[in-house]
């Protein structure tokens, strides 16, 4: 076996797909898309270096492996790296050679950043490779489905402001509210929460536009938002309505499932209705990051109870999400929530 290395060329993706076949993991499927022609960056394109390993047989090189390292506009303190080797060429030093080359290329990244990060699933070949070459976990992430009615609904007292009658219908209406995804107030708390839970891999300073584009824009599938507010207080006594709403304690942004482009008219509507009944809604749930730990845990638990009262919801649960873990992990232990896929580890050198 004679292995030679070169830069990625157009058409290598198709050649490698023939050799690699289906991806081993969902992460492999995702990161294969990062394999592309090397770039010096600029004009919205990140700096990238991509290398292909060829097995040369009778003077003809057959691509069998590839590796890529590239800068990220979000979480810029590390470079993303990905390596894949054909199954029948593993344990032959090809992956190690590619990693050495990528580390050498990283020394010339325009940002000056040289640390690498990657994503692996525990117990896989990628996990073993990362551990062997000194990439250690810095975060664990899980997709969790919370079943309907897993948590008891919170009880919110209604305030008799201005003589309004207290009833079951309006109880809590001062604290649980729908909010437009374009709301500046929502954008602010979502951005600060995301930054707060990523101290292990800083996203840098996020602008209002970036937060909107990442989490709240129509293109993300953002479908609606609910917020849980602090009880409004009046400066003129309990019988007088306050001048403004309480601040946001927790938020939940839901994302619409994509429609089926192959569905016939009528079938699509029926299919969407069935999906709404059976498929968990993807939700980003968080809290005002300045809340005390106990207050944050209570706010997140109450919000989760509300959104998962009648329908299942799916959440991304990082170990850094302390308040959400406090609500979800007991449900996992009690069988009222379940993992929706394999765990993901972010590893770094």
From TrEMBL:
Residues 259-274 have a biased composition (Low complexity). It comes from the Bacteria. Residues 259-278 are annotated as: Disordered. This is N-acetyltransferase domain-containing protein. It comes from Arthrobacter liuii.
């Amino acid at each position: 076996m004679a292995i030679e290395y070169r830069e990625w060329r157009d058409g290598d993706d198709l050649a490698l797909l023939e050799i690699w076949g289906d991806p081993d993991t969902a992460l492999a499927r995702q990161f294969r898309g990062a394999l592309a022609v090397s770039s010096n960056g600029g004009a919205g394109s990140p700096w990238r270096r991509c290398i292909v390993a060829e097995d040369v047989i009778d003077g003809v090189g057959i691509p069998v492996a590839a590796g890529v390292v590239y800068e990220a506009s979000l979480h810029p303190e590390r470079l993303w790296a990905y390596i894949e080797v054909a199954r029948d060429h593993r344990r032959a030093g090809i992956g190690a050679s590619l990693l050495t080359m990528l580390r050498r290329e990283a020394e010339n990244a325009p940002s000056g950043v040289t640390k690498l990060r990657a994503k692996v699933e525990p117990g896989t070949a990628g996990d073993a490779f990362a551990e062997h070459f000194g990439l250690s976990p810095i975060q664990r992430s899980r997709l969790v489905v919370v079943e309907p009615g897993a948590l008891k609904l919170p009880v919110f007292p209604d305030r008799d402001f201005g003589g309004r009658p207290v009833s079951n219908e309006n109880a809590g209406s001062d604290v649980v509210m729908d909010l437009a995804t374009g709301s500046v107030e929502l954008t602010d708390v979502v951005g600060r929460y995301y930054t707060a839970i990523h101290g292990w891999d800083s996203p840098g300073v996020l602008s209002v536009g970036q937060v909107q584009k990442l989490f709240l824009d129509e293109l993300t599938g953002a479908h609606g938002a609910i917020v849980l507010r602090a009880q409004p207080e009046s400066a003129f006594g309990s019988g007088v309505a306050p001048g403004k709403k309480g601040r946001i304690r927790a938020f939940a942004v839901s994302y619409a499932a994509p429609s089926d482009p192959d569905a016939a008219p009528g079938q699509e509507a029926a299919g969407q209705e069935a999906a709404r009944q059976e498929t968990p809604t993807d939700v980003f749930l968080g809290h005002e990051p300045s809340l005390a730990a106990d207050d944050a845990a209570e706010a997140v638990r109450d919000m989760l109870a509300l959104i998962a009262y009648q329908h299942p919801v799916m959440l991304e649960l990082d170990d850094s999400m302390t308040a959400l873990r406090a609500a979800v992990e007991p449900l996992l232990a009690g069988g009222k929530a379940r993992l929706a896929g394999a765990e993901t580890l972010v590893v770094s050198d």
